Amino acid sequence: MGTGGKPADDGVAAAHGGVRAGVAIHGTEGCPVVAASTVHDGPITGVNWTHVGDTHTEEFRARDPDAVDRAEGVPTPTSVVDLGDERVYRYDRPRDGACACRIIEELDCPIADARAEDGVLLLTLHLPDLERLRDIVSALDGTAERVEVRYLVEGSARGDEVSDRTLVDRGRLTDRQCEVLRTAYRMGYFERPRDANASAVADALDISPSTFAEHLATAQRKLLEETLAEN
After folding, report:
1. Residue 186 shares a structural domain with residue 105
2. CA 108 from centre of chain
3. Are 130 and 172 in the same domain?
4. Looking at the 3D structure of the chain, how many domains does it have?
5. Inside any domain, residue 11
6. Highest taxon of the source (predicted)?
7. Cα separations (Å) of 201 from 5, 179, 188, 192?
8. pTM, whole model, 2 decimals?
9. Sheet of 19-26, strands arranged across
10. Where among 122, 152, 182 does a domain terminate?
11. Whether 118 and 61 share a structural domain
12. Which end of the chain is more exposed for a tag (fewer CB within 10 A), N or C?
């Protein structure tokens, strides 16, 4: 990795300015935001926190306030501000040594973004090399059922060479979203000029054009939101 005396060509990250990693943590116990996400329609976003003494204060944004109230294992949240299409909540709980985010921060790794969806904690991390990513996964062993690295983006190379290779996890897509993308691609929907319009692809899928547009937009957002996000 180019650290600890190892040759730099042990891995690609050290020569390419670090990595951006998307990590999915499955089976976290006692995380109120994750618990709320199991009954929430769509992701819970804007997760951030602070520590004062033995108290952990966490804040998050939710579009479905009723789902937050229905969630089991979630401390009674305080509504901080209503933003119209979503609401910001905050709650306090004792500091927990088994908290995945705290474990990562104690490795001197700030968390760039945190959200929860369908009972999975999704984190974005900016790391100096792949060795640090291995340290994080190892540290989370026993805290979660499974830690999944969903993608890696290498930083730009030194000098004139540029590296921007990305591993995309198609597992983020539902079977239906994969089918929509595959059919649209096969029929030439993404060509310029298009070989097939939205109505033609929707007919092939036996769905309405509006449903096709919804599936397509969701699939594209899932695949592109992280890889196109600014560091």
Report:
1. no
2. 20
3. no
4. 2
5. no
6. Archaea
7. 55, 11, 9, 15
8. 0.62
9. 111-117, 120-127, 19-26, 146-154
10. 152
11. yes
12. C
Alpha helices in the chain (DSSP H): 32-37, 65-70, 100-105, 130-139, 175-186, 198-205, 209-224
Please name the amino acid found at residue 226.
Answer: E
| 114-126 pLDDT, tens digit each | 999 989 999 999 9
What are the tokens at 60? 């998050």
| Residue 173 domain boundaries | 168-226
Q: Are residues 86 and 173 in the same domain?
A: no
pLDDT band at 136 (very low <50, low <70, confident <90, very high): very high
Structure token pair of residue 36: 């709320």
Angstrom CA distances, 37 to 46, 133, 217, stand at 13, 25, 21
Residue found by looking up tokens 């909540």 in the block: 89
Q: Judge whether residue 12 has pLDDT over 60.
A: no
Token couple for 64: 């479905």
